[in-house]
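#dry-run=false #mode=assembly
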Amino acid sequence: MKGLFKRDLALAIRAGGGFGLGLAFFLIVTILVPFGVGPNTATLSIIAPGVLWIGALLACLLSLDRVFQVDWEDGSLDLLATSPLPLENVAAAKALAHWVTTGLPLVVAAPILGLLLNLPMPGYLWLMLSLALGTPALSAIGTFGAALTVGVKRGGLLLSLLVLPLYVPTLIFGALVVTRGAAGLDATTPLALLAGITLATLAGLPFAAAAALRVNLR
Amino acid sequence: MSSLWEYANPRKFMTTSAALLPWVSGIAALCLGVGLVWGFFFTPDDFRMGSTVKIFYVHVPSAIMAVNAWVMMLVCSLIWVIRRHHVSALAAKAAAPVGMVFTAIALFTGAIWGQPMWGTWWEWDPRLTAFLILFLFYLGYMALWEAIENPDSAADLTSVLCLVGSVFAVISRYALVFWNQGLHQGATLSLDAEQNIADEFWYPALFSLAGFGFLFLALVLYRTQTEIRARRLKALIAQERMA
Amino acid sequence: MQLHTEIQVPPHDVHIFGPPQPEAEPFPHPQLSATGEAMHVSVTNLACARGGLQVLAGVQFAVSSGQALVLKGPNGSGKTTLLRTLAGLTPPLSGQIETAPDAIAYAGHADGLKAQLTTAENLRFWAEVFGTSGIAEAVDAFDLHELLDRRAGELSAGQKRRLSLARLLVTGRLVWCLDEPTVSLDAENTARFARAVEAHLTGGGSAIIATHIDLGLSRSETLDITPFVAKSLPSEDPFSDEAFA
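#status=ok
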């Protein structure tokens, strides 16, 4: 499992791996928002938590179709399925690698983009906390969606259609943490619920993803 | 009839459903006719809501059916995953578009009712939003069925999606309550309340509810028959190619 | 990076494929073939499906230690399906496949290589996944020394194939299930591959190979799968019911 995780990191970082694309996408989406809603800093600071969370969510979505598709096309997925590594572990390692290459950079970059949107001062810690706790759920749910659609040619759009409704609770609690935190209110309740969702998806979805992979491989 | 599982045989299902369908369709038409005509023309206007209350006879049953269809898909998916009865998987497939249309009707009639009552076509109320998300779940479920060629694989994958989706749907429902307290009135029909509404509204509502239930059953039976015929055709074509 | 110096080449008496068969029996339920050798794969009345349709029925064969089974049959007859079923990727429609758990190494049409990783990295990844250590033998057997530091994406089709076949040695598994392994190999490398298979068999392994060419293996049997090609839908298919309304 460690080997697969390390390999996926290496593949993401090397040329053509797409590392940084999600981050660039997050940056562009955030920069585009003021063009759409106007430069009024008061308005921007109200919508900043939601915009940052939706930007992070879309950036995660962007790289999901690569999670299994490349391994499926070059035959490695067949070989992994016949290896001693259980497919549940394959799914978990893939989700983890996706989070480290996509989710983690977003957590680090989010405060800088928060400045652009005039996010109120007390919100920054909550923003990083909520993204750090919430993006693993996005990767785990997304890996499940990628496993469902791995056999579908050009399944990227279908993947979004399946995954986005599943992102609703994570988004609600994640954005709520930042909104409440930025307003100077206590945000520990939504943060705890967000952490609960993350733990539950990490515990359960690798099994669902492995079941989907087994169906797609036969 | 020795066991419920006999209906897992497509042939047995076809003969039984063919015998049942005229009756189910007839009862659906009768109940809907009685319930809607009674509800629309022979009940008094509500003292607060006026005549707009009458959309209730369509809105509430379709909302109930929208959720019921998903529950039926969940049960059918479980039966397919555990016992691998093809009819069960096809019934789940058949129920999805019906459930989606009921969801759309509930949302649409809700918007029409909400306009005079709340002064807005759409409100991000948890109950309304939950139906919007349910609509998206139906869309995704149907899109996955369409995208996978091998029917057994499609049944497996949509079942997994239905199981996981159901868990997320319940979480979303409670997340939405947390997110926004909402405008929507509480459940109009519930079993534990002593009396929800006056009898004069209640009886036509019962007819309309039964009508929608039988309509749902009839549509699902029709659509399952169609799916079984499509699979039969596929089997015949394969048989021809092999021989 | 000099991979071949990092790895210790085992002494000659150490067997790459684990201890020789008769002394230590790697199977939990040993079965002996007619010649007294350990049975590796035993298939009884197997029916396989591809895309939900039955393609093979009544397949029957057994492969024991030191033996190679060459699958023949026209294109589309179901060789790939049979190999995928043996490898456990596709569940069988009916029938039994008896193998020891974790005995089969599968190699399909696709090479399963990562273009951005070097030859050495590709092999090391599989060694880590399979929990084995010896990749030096694999490098020797397929003459990959020159290619170790080159990225797999830069290799020619034949070189990729060699790397992909070298992975089989890395897995350390007993039964090789190979689907058209000699595609894009030249005559010299085909001979090299045949020698690797021969060494695998001599070491107590076995192989099931779908191929159209004669590899010149000493102990090989040929199985023509044409007689097993399914002529009808499986009887359990509820939609093929003759009396269907």
